[in-house]
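Journal club side-thread
Mid-discussion, someone asked how the predicted structure for our own chain would compare to the paper's figures. Pasting it here so we can look after the session.
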Amino acid sequence: MKIAFFALKQAIYYFQIGGTESFVRRLSSKLVEHGCEVDYILYGDKEDKNDKEEINLIPKTAINSKYFNSFKDAFKQINQKYDHVITTYVMPKNRIKFALFRKKDKGTTFHFIYFSWPDSLLKRKLYFLEARLLPYNGKLFCISKRQYQYVKKWSKNAIYLLPPVPEKYFFRPEEKPVCKKLRVNFLGRIDPRKGIKQVKEIFMAIKDNDKFECGIYGIHMPECRESLEIHNELKEQKEIKYIEIDRQKYSPGIEDFVGNVLKETDIFIQPYQKLSSTIDTPLLFLEAIASLCVVITKPFGNIPDIYGESKFLIHPHNFVKDTIELLKDISFDDLVKERERIYQINSVLNFSTGKVAKRFINALVG
């Protein structure tokens, strides 16, 4: 079976760190293991002489990456060459052309993966409108329950598929390392939308408490002034451990690094200001619960459906104050009970990469 993932380069570039990129990267690697031929077909949003068109084999994989400056040249590469083409993001100005192309290419089944849930009702309707007006002849994959509930009202091809997490991230309760101090960590983008300012405030309040060991593992965005300022502040201070991660340099080593951080984390803080700043079922949230981290986060979207009833889901109002109070009162027994509860959740959800890939393949051929 020949499969292509087709999108704007910035959406799924293999060597970039992000939820969408990780989803496609993990899925495509498993598809290769199942005997599929997999290509990335990427295009640029404008002509750029410094961004050279290239076709190459991604190192240590059997995946080809094919990049083209123009949208036209990219979809010509698809023509009649694949059994399935999975799209994640096409620029608005290209969507009608792409729909006409899908209609002409009778030998290929085209699918779409929804990653977002826009805050604005108008933007949300527009986001889902394309597949209603210009239908795909394949499946519409939804990574959150609310996406799925919305899409299934008007499409028989809606499929609910949680983001995949590598098997090596998963632990049984007895395998989770034990430390004298409770290890409280944040891992993610140094971005106000991700709640980094709230993380700083919480960590500053508990940093002198001998019960805790705090750490920030951050991906900063040099193009964002506020992100860069917070990054520089964190680098200059000495009170909270700060480890910088390069967003542009994915490698298997980075994935191992993230897995090891989560393995050594007791409490993972993820205070999104808006869920729209990430994919609609946050991948780091799933990675953290796979690693049996107790996650302190806000009950946005379908997070409560996955995480269940828990005192660690904290309302956005007074999030910082309530989190500090919760942490001060937490005991190791609380952690043990919550780990057991999370382990049972993981057993039911089955979101390991291998199991997600099997469901994906079954949806394609079914």
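Post-session note: The domain at 168-349 is CATH 3.40.50.2000 (Rossmann fold).
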